[in-house]
Design a protein that fits this description.
The protein is built from 9 helices and 21 strands. Strand 6 and strand 7 form a beta hairpin. It has a 7-stranded antiparallel β-sheet with strand order 9-10-21-12-17-18-19, with no helix packed on it. A 6-stranded antiparallel β-sheet has the order 11-20-13-14-15-16, with no helix packed on it. It has a 3-stranded antiparallel β-sheet with strand order 2-1-5. The radius of gyration is 42 Å and the shape is elongated. With 470 residues, the protein is α+β, with helices and mostly antiparallel strands.
């Protein structure tokens, strides 16, 4: 008895290329190919003049056909051998022609019979055997499934990141609440009202950030649910029969190409300026309007050895002015030779430090901090890359000197600036010293001594360092 593979090969040899059934009254045409008599005559019927072979496309002037009794005998043998085979799956039939649905029309995305394939509606369409089409679309569905599963992986990673932001936010909120209670406990009799106001502002900001993060989490969950439903539907479809698998398969594939839209990164840092400036200083500033705060903290002194030759320092070292004539001063290594800059005399390698500088109505200045190794003898960008963290006013515009610069949209022009350096936390906050509003906060890692930095550009204008008493 023939093996399964041999039997399948014999079936292929006695299958009509047109109807894909065993030969019925097989005939041979001039090129040597075999067909059912009815199939080849029906194929040639609408053609006027020369005809062609459906398989090799050879052209013929005459429509010659010869009976093929050998093929008939082989068909009988194959049918006899196949009688012992297990019955095939129930095959659906064409509603119009009652023929088995053996082909798949790519253009119309549906199963059709052989008669349909030769009709005017499908003659110019891309048609392939159902089994072949099912294999092609099964590969496509598997690719879509792999894509969607990768989207789920990205979603899971994003969910973990958002959970981390939420935990970080909660920890920050708890720490800041504890700091508020500790600092204001010392001044409770004066600052009950201030304490309640600050706690309310913190809670509002924390709640707003939580809502942003929760919104991102909800969006991620919705995308996850949608993609999981698609995965379930595709997995179910892959288990169906080939014809059922192919129903609306292109529509399903097209609608499944949904890329995971990762939410915009949420800022999980509390930005309330009062928590970047030491709370005891904030309390002291506000309490100064009610009670005498006592002796003010010592103000900084400018370092004359670092001052550009076009800058003049007052005798007390607290005011710097742009002169009309370049001064004759030693060209020592510490001095800025090109930029009109000067540093404070005291540098810091740890801790939290605040100072204030009056900028008045000056038209060009820069205020911040600089590392000890910042270049002194050449022109360079006044930004963190070259060791300067500063806010600048130039040509009527306020900018944080990042790379590239960050434009600051200020509602009012500050007359006095405050600088808070938190060396250990790696933060420099520049703020309006009159209303304590945050202008910009730099975040970096400090590895060397950091000095107060000042620059002023226009002749006759001055910057003045103030005691921290408002």
């Amino acid at each position: 008895m023939a093996s399964g593979k041999e039997l399948e090969k014999m079936k292929d040899e006695v299958t009509c290329p047109i109807c894909l059934e065993f030969f019925a009254d097989p005939v041979t045409i001039d090129c040597g190919h075999n067909f059912c008599r009815a199939c080849i005559l029906q194929y040639w019927e609408p053609i006027a003049g020369k005809v062609t072979c459906p398989q090799c496309r050879t052209e013929f002037l005459q429509r010659n056909i010869r009976p093929n009794r050998f093929a008939s005998n082989i068909v009988k043998s194959v049918k006899k051998l196949s009688s012992g085979q297990k019955p095939a799956e129930r095959e659906l039939r064409c509603e119009e022609h009652e023929e088995k649905l053996k082909l798949f029309c790519e253009d119309d995305q549906r199963a059709i019979c052989v008669v349909c394939s030769m009709s005017r509606d499908h003659r110019d369409h891309a048609v392939s055997p159902i089994k072949e089409a099912a294999e092609i679309y099964k590969e496509k569905l598997l690719k879509v499934l792999d894509f969607l599963q990768k989207q789920i992986e990205d979603i899971s990673k994003s969910q973990s990141e958002e959970e981390g932001h939420l935990i970080k936010l909660k920890i920050q909120g708890d720490n800041l609440r504890q700091q508020i209670l500790s600092e204001f406990g010392k001044l409770h009799q004066f600052l009950n009202e201030e304490e309640r106001a600050l706690k309310r502002k913190l809670e509002e900001e924390e709640r707003a950030l939580m809502q942003q993060i929760e919104g991102s989490r909800n969006d991620i969950s919705e995308q996850s649910d949608t993609i999981r439903r698609m995965i379930t539907d595709i997995q179910r479809r892959l288990s169906l029969q080939e014809i059922e698998l192919l129903q609306d398969v292109k529509l399903i594939i097209d609608s499944s190409r949904v890329a995971f839209k990762k939410p915009k990164p949420n800022c999980s840092d509390l930005r309330l300026v009062d928590f970047k400036i030491p709370l005891d200083y904030v309390a002291w500033k506000r309490m100064s309007k009610i009670v005498s705060p006592g002796p003010a903290p010592a103000s900084l002194i400018l370092d004359a050895k670092t001052a550009n030759p076009w800058l003049f320092l007052s005798d007390n070292g607290r005011t710097v002015t742009v002169t009309r004539r370049k001064q004759r001063v030693p060209d020592n290594p510490e001095r800025f030779s090109n930029w009109r800059c000067v540093l404070g005399s005291e540098g810091f390698t740890a801790g939290s430090h605040c100072w204030e500088v009056g900028v008045g109505n000056n038209t060009g200045w820069g205020v911040g901090v600089a590392r000890e190794s910042a270049p002194r003898k050449e022109l360079y960008a006044l930004n963190p890359k070259d060791g300067v963290w500063a806010v600048e006013l130039w040509s009527g515009r306020y900018n944080a000197q990042t790379s590239p610069a960050t434009s600051l949209d200020l509602k009012t022009s500050p007359q006095k600036l405050g600088v808070h350096l938190d060396y250990d936390a790696g933060q420099v906050t520049i703020y309006d010293a009159d209303d304590l509003s945050d202008l910009f906060t730099f975040t970096d890692t400090f590895t060397e001594k950091i000095y107060p930095f000042f620059s002023i550009y226009c002749t006759g204008e001055s910057l003045t360092l103030h005691p921290l008493q408002g």
